[in-house]
């Protein structure tokens, strides 16, 4: 029997993220050997997001309670304009849109759409003491009670990201002998990793990054393109919010390539972490038992009561496992039923191999956390990376361990909460994106085929070196 909301232990999310994150970042920065970094903190220091590249402090930007203080890519790379955009991604901005929708001036009304990442759903399941399907309907009921018009989950978008990554890997593998940048291929769903690659590693890595958009940004394309046309709306009339486990997703949402200047519209207008939604529920003293159970919506305009599913993999989108099995079949005609991981340095640095007659045909790696990423980069500089694909995530433990939902009052990862979320997530049934008829329907109805220019625009992007960086990393750099 579930307990009333305000009688439950509200562990895992501090009331003010900045209370723990500034101190945590200060400790990290004190151990960092980077000399040119605007995130360096003094004892009295202001929020790093107020500092310009030249070290001057901008008086125009107020201190924000939640920005990139949990960003794991410790690189002073935010421009003042980016800082301002990210500062607008908070609960107050969503409340502002909801307030405008209640006013009489219909010209300022917007259709409010919320897309929830699958890795956020176990968080609410644990907090609500419910299974994921039941918790999802309670979450949907809460959001709609606020005035949200449509609530989706992003599993469908993740399916597109997986399928496009599979196809790109096969293409890269087949041109590996005449294209030095074809392999290894690095995954592209983690914005902390992408930022680090673009701003620090540059041309060493960026040509190797998979061009498939992350599930968040595929969902942005799906909502602001297909769904708006279904609803006979223009993209600027939709305010799209994504609920994610990670603060870095805010940074991804403000990238220039995801902005339509003609319509002044972003694919994702605002990213809120699971913890921020939970904070809103705390503020409103919500009793979960009294919330209506409302099923998720569907981008086709239908009610999605088919049941929640997940993709393969431990707490993330399972890109490595999906690409590995597909490549084994497409390239070598081998069916792989189960993947066996070999742990190397730790649980967050693992590899998997495909062998036939004593020959290694494929060798992939899963590398989570910046300590392991640093090891990978050092090996790459020395030409000692044997992998054809590397799934890279900046959060140790993967997306379920995003700091937007597992950070405790002391700034540490709540391991008990993480374990509960992993158990809840693994309880969902697995569905291969290839077996999803809705994806095939969207390829035809929305994208005009898999290889069409429309599909390329909606599902892919490009990454490149964004500023000149030193060619070598200091040997004592700490993450």
Automatic annotation (TrEMBL):
Residues 35-51 have a biased composition (Polar residues). InterPro entries: Cytosolic_Fe-S_CAF, Fe_hydrogenase, Fe_hydrogenase_lsu_C, Fe_hydrogenase_ssu. Residues 411-467 form the Iron hydrogenase small subunit domain. Residues 35-55 are annotated as: Disordered. It comes from the Eukaryota. Gene3D superfamilies: 3.40.50.1780, Fe-only Hydrogenase (Larger Subunit), Chain L, domain 3. Pfam families: Fe_hyd_lg_C (PF02906), Fe_hyd_SSU (PF02256). Belongs to the NARF family. This is Iron hydrogenase small subunit domain-containing protein. The lineage of its organism: Eukaryota, Metazoa, Chordata, Craniata, Vertebrata.
């Amino acid at each position: 029997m579930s307990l009333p909301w305000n009688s439950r232990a509200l562990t895992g999310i501090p009331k003010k993220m900045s209370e723990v994150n500034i101190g945590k970042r200060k400790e990290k920065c004190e151990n960092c050997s980077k000399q040119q970094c605007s995130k360096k903190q003094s004892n009295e220091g202001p929020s790093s997001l107020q500092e310009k590249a030249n070290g001057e402090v901008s008086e125009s930007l107020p201190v924000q309670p939640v920005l990139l203080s949990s960003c794991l890519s410790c690189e002073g790379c935010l421009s003042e304009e980016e800082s301002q955009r990210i500062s607008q991604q908070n609960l107050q901005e969503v409340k502002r849109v909801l307030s405008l929708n209640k006013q009489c001036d219909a010209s300022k009304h917007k259709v409010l759409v919320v897309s929830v990442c699958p890795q956020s759903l176990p968080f609410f399941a644990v907090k609500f003491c419910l299974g994921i399907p039941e918790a999802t309907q309670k979450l949907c009921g809460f959001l709609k009670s606020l005035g949200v018009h449509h609530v989706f989950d992003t599993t469908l978008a993740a399916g597109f990201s997986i399928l496009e990554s599979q196809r790109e890997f096969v293409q890269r593998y087949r041109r590996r002998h005449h294209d030095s940048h074809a392999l290894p291929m690095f995954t592209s769903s983690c914005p902390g990793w992408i930022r680090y690659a673009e701003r620090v590693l540059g041309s060493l890595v960026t040509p190797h990054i998979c061009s498939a958009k992350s599930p968040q940004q595929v969902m942005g394309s799906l909502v602001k393109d297909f769904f708006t046309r279904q609803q006979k709306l223009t993209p600027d009339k939709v305010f799209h919010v994504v609920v994610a486990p990670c603060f870095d997703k805010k940074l991804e949402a403000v990238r220039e390539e995801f902005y339509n200047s003609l319509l002044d519209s972003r694919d994702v207008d605002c990213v809120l972490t699971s913890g921020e939604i939970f904070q809103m529920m705390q503020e409103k003293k919500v009793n979960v038992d009294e919330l209506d159970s409302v099923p998720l919506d569907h981008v086709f305009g239908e009610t999605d009561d088919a049941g929640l599913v997940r993709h393969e993999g431990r707490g993330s989108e399972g890109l490595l496992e999906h690409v590995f099995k597909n490549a084994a079949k497409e390239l070598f005609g081998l069916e792989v039923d189960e993947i066996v991981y070999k742990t190397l340095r730790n649980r967050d640095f693992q590899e998997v191999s495909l062998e036939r007659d004593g020959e290694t045909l494929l060798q992939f790696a899963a590398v989570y956390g910046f300590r392991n990423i640093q090891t990978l980069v050092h090996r790459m500089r020395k030409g000692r990376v044997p992998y054809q694909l590397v799934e890279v995530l900046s959060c140790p433990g993967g997306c379920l361990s995003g700091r937007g939902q597992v950070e405790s009052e002391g700034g540490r990862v709540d391991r008990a909460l993480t374990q509960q979320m992993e158990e809840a997530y693994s309880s969902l049934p697995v569905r291969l994106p290839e077996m999803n008829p809705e994806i095939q329907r969207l390829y035809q109805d929305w994208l005009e085929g898999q290889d069409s220019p429309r599909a390329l625009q909606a599902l892919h992007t490009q990454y490149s070196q964004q500023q000149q960086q030193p060619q070598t990393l200091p040997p004592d750099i700490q993450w």
